[in-house]
Design goal:
With 171 residues, the chain is α/β, with parallel strands linked by helices. 41% of the residues lie in helices and 25% in strands. It contains 7 helices and 7 strands; from the N terminus they run H-E-H-E-H-E-E-E-H-E-H-H-H-E. The strands form 2 sheets. Strands 2-5-1-6-7 form a 5-stranded parallel β-sheet, with helices on both faces. A two-stranded antiparallel ribbon has the order 3-4.
Length: 171
């Protein structure tokens, strides 16, 4: 919390990465609650489907992080998971005092340059899987390994735990 409070520019941008089920959304909600308010952008609204981890992270960097860093509004088209296609609905985020961007794949060297605080969350595979399946139900089960392979590629290419200013290992 102190790291966010010490940021002297607006918006203070917090990037939270971690594998599926690591606790990114919960952590983002907790930070927002402790601060009293913060805008939260969830990559789950941006990823273009089950094969879109990198594309979603790229979109978030280009359409959310880069504009916010310039003091401008970020915007993106949302993904409709039920119809498995991009929707016509545009979401946006204004440069609030604190903006949290959370999602698997978001922490890269390029996105770290646009952020003020970077976080990597890690947890054992079994615990992550149990949380993800509890959260998303059976709709996620057939896609778990498919998504995990994309996370593996992200970790090999970018090593987000090394880039992050803060690393938390959760049970």
């Amino acid at each position: 919390m102190r790291a966010v409070a010490e940021v002297r520019r607006v918006p203070a941008i917090v990037v939270i990465d971690g594998r599926s089920g690591a606790g990114k959304s919960t952590f983002a909600d907790m930070i927002a609650a402790l601060l009293g308010s913060a805008a939260i952008v969830r990559l789950d609204d941006i990823y273009p489907g089950w094969d879109g981890l990198q594309a979603g992270a790229d979109t978030a960097r280009e359409r959310v992080l880069a504009p916010l860093r310039q003091g401008e509004q970020g915007s993106w088209l949302t993904w409709d998971w039920s119809s498995d296609r991009q929707s016509d609905r545009v979401q946006s985020v204004a440069p609030a005092p604190v903006v949290i961007v959370e999602g698997a794949g978001i922490l890269t060297p390029e996105s770290a340059e646009l952020a003020d605080v970077t976080v990597w969350l890690d947890a054992p595979r079994g615990a992550r899987r149990a949380r993800a399946l509890h959260r998303d139900g059976e709709t996620y089960r057939p896609h778990w390994e498919r998504w995990e392979r994309q996370e593996d590629a992200h970790l090999r290419e970018h090593d987000p735990a090394r880039i992050a200013r803060f690393v938390f290992r959760l049970p």
